[in-house]
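Fold this sequence, please.
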Amino acid sequence: MKPIGSRHRKPGLEDFFGRAVRARRREIGMTQAQLAELTGMSQAAISRLEHGKCMPTLPLLERVAAALNSVLLVAIEPRRRVSVNFRAFADQPGRGGADERCHGVAVAEPVR
């Protein structure tokens, strides 16, 4: 993870990843310590991730998604918005899910 600078910055992609991770973790009743253990990270690193203090790498996001038993979906619409969300494996088409609910949705403002 790469540390992010100023405390007074405009919210960025790392904030939306963090919000989605926190929302999904809480939804399934997992603690930061449990997520840390499953991902091979420290609890402090999970806290930094959830608070948008660092930009996660793709391999880290893959480990987090696996630990949360979820698929990570990121949509980037040019000059519009970025959305980051987790969808439980059971909610995936063809996996026996009853609905199409998204978990931990975080949407960024349009990119200018």
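DSSP finds four helices and five strands in the chain. The helical segments are 13-27, 32-39, 43-50, 58-67.
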